[in-house]
Design goal:
single chain, about 110 residues, alpha+beta, Mth169, Chain: A, three-stranded antiparallel β-sheet, 3 strands, about 25% strand
Length: about 110
C-alpha cells in the first residue's frame, strides 16, 4: 500500500429480490416452530462478503465494491445487494494472509 492509498473495508450483503423464491428461507421459517419460536415470518437467506480495497479515497474504493457487487458477487436477475462500509483499515494485510478470526483453509465454508 503506497502513501497515496488507504485500505477501506466493506461488506456486501446479497439477498434474493422480493418476489423471487427463497427455498432456504422457507426451510428456516418452517423449522422455527420446532424450536419453540413463534412470530417470525418473511425469512430470507443470503450471503455476506467482506473485503478490503486499496484506493486513493473512500469514494474510489466504494466504486470498486459497487462494480464487484453488481458484476461478480450477485446475479442481477434474481438478487439484490447492499454495500455496508466497515471503515478504514489500520494497515493492509500481506497478500495471502488470513484476516483475524477467519480460517485460511476454507474448511467448513460453504458458498
Amino acid at each position: 500500500m503506497s502513501d497515496s492509498t488507504r485500505a477501506y473495508r466493506f461488506a456486501v450483503n446479497v439477498t434474493p429480490k422480493p418476489g423471487i423464491l427463497d427455498p432456504q428461507g422457507k426451510a428456516v421459517e418452517r423449522s422455527l416452530p420446532h424450536l419453540g419460536i413463534a412470530g417470525v415470518t418473511g425469512v430470507r437467506v443470503g450471503r455476506r462478503v467482506e473485503m478490503a480495497v486499496e484506493a486513493a479515497d473512500g469514494a474510489a474504493a466504494r466504486a470498486v465494491v459497487d462494480r464487484l457487487a453488481g458484476e461478480l458477487l450477485s446475479n442481477p436477475l434474481v438478487e439484490q445487494f447492499a454495500v455496508e462500509p466497515l471503515g478504514e483499515t489500520v494497515e493492509a494485510a500481506p497478500t495471502g494472509a488470513a484476516s483475524p478470526g477467519v480460517a485460511s483453509t476454507g474448511a467448513g465454508a460453504r458458498g
